[in-house]
Design goal:
Elements: E1 17-18, E2 26-38, E3 41-55, E4 60-64, H1 73-84, E5 92-97, H2 102-107, H3 131-143, E6 149-152, E7 160-162, E8 165-168, H4 174-185, E9 191-195, H5 204-210, E10 214-219, H6 228-245, E11 264-268, E12 274-276, E13 281-285, E14 292-293, E15 298-303, E16 313-316, E17 321-327, E18 331-332, E19 337-344, H7 347-352
Parallel strand pairs: 4-5, 4-6, 6-10, 8-9, 9-11
Antiparallel strand pairs: 1-2, 2-3, 3-5, 7-17, 8-10, 11-19, 12-19, 13-15, 13-18, 14-17, 15-16, 17-19
Helix pairs in contact: 1-6
Length: 353
């Protein structure tokens, strides 16, 4: 198996343990055991399922679902992958953790019910920190260093609805950016999305990017339910990216061969692309998801339950582009992100940024 060029010389100790031998050929299924004491169990563990499939020479690819527990598209795609892929289908090593934030997945929540933390704001983590911090630390110091590529599958969860899209950060290193762009496009979603972080630091993709990895992320729909179409995008797109990366056998499918137009690449790299509710109230979305939007167009309104005599506040787009995401719950609080406007960009421009 190929060893990542960014693997550190010393692996920092972790409290998390596993019986999985990451270097053993074949298919193994087991658990990451995170020490956790609570009122009814002093010596308990959080048991996070992990599957490792290794065969021959090739890259190591880490596939993660459930970074947020209420986002099930990636968890189901990861479970399918862990169940159906045999060792002889792999060249290199495939590591699959379908429900990374396992306590949150069991509770159907974005944040961990154990410590209240957002795993996607917990990196690089602490070896002896809370459960969420330990998970982040284990990935940072044990799984990212041995990986060549990291796939982190997200959706909007219960808070947002996205046009199903693969997405990425615009990283400084051009070689890494090219690899990420190509892998993002291999998901074959109608839209691709370049994004920035407006809600804090400590993100999983950023930690992996800082270690030089090819990082592919997604926003595959959102809300409480998941349609069959979105499940197909999650499953088929993931498999195609794994083939593109060279770790899974089978032909790589291109959109042109599928009779589809090229993916629309969009970007939301300015904080103004992310529209926030100016007041609390009831949200009315006024534009279809994925539709083109012009400057100053009303994309949403906030209504006031207690004031039927008051005109709703119009939320207008400061940009021309596409409505790539909207808030799912109608009840909205001041400062909530209610819409994301993404501007079109071409692949050549992405590489010149």
């Amino acid at each position: 198996m190929a060893r990542s060029r960014c693997a550190p010389e010393r692996i920092e100790a972790a409290m998390i343990r596993t019986d999985i031998d990451l270097d053993r050929p074949g298919k193994q299924q087991g658990f990451l055991r995170v020490p956790y004491s609570h009122n009814l169990a002093g010596w308990a563990n959080v048991m996070i399922p992990i599957t490792v499939i290794a065969h021959g020479a090739g890259p190591t690819v880490l596939v993660l679902g459930g970074n947020h527990g209420d986002e099930y598209q990636g968890q189901i795609a990861g479970l399918k992958l862990a169940r159906t892929v045999a060792a002889d289908m792999v060249s290199g090593r495939l590591i699959v953790i379908p429900s990374l934030n396992f306590p949150a997945a069991q509770a159907s929540t974005r944040l961990s019910p154990i410590d209240g933390m957002n795993l996607n704001r917990a990196f690089p983590g602490e070896a002896e920190g809370s459960v969420t911090s330990q998970i982040a630390h284990y990935l940072t110091h044990h799984l990212f260093p041995i990986s060549d590529a990291v796939i982190d599958i997200h959706s909007g969860g219960r808070s947002m609805e996205f046009v199903p899209c693969s997405h990425m950060h615009v990283v400084p290193n051009r070689e890494q950016r090219r690899a990420m762009l190509d892998a993002m496009l291999a998901w074959n979603t109608d839209f691709c999305f370049l994004y920035t972080d407006i809600a804090g630091t400590g993100l999983l993709p950023v930690e992996a990017e800082n270690q030089g990895k090819t990082v592919v992320t997604t926003e595959l729909g959102g809300g409480e339910g998941v349609s069959a179409a979105v499940h197909r995008i999650a499953h088929e797109g993931l498999q195609n990216v794994l083939r593109h990366l060279g770790v899974l056998s089978g032909p790589v499918q291109a959109r042109t061969a599928m009779g589809l137009p090229p993916s629309v690449i969009t970007q939301a790299l300015d904080s103004r692309n992310y529209l926030l509710a100016p007041e609390s109230g009831i949200l009315e979305v006024c534009v279809d998801l994925g539709a083109p939007v012009r400057v100053d167009q009303v994309v949403a309104r906030v209504h006031f339950l207690e004031r039927p005599d008051r005109e709703p506040i119009a939320i207008r787009s400061p940009k021309q582009g596409y409505l790539i995401a909207t808030r799912t719950p109608c009840r909205t609080h001041q400062g909530d992100c209610v819409a994301v406007i993404a501007e079109p960009v071409d692949a050549d421009s992405v590489m010149k940024m």
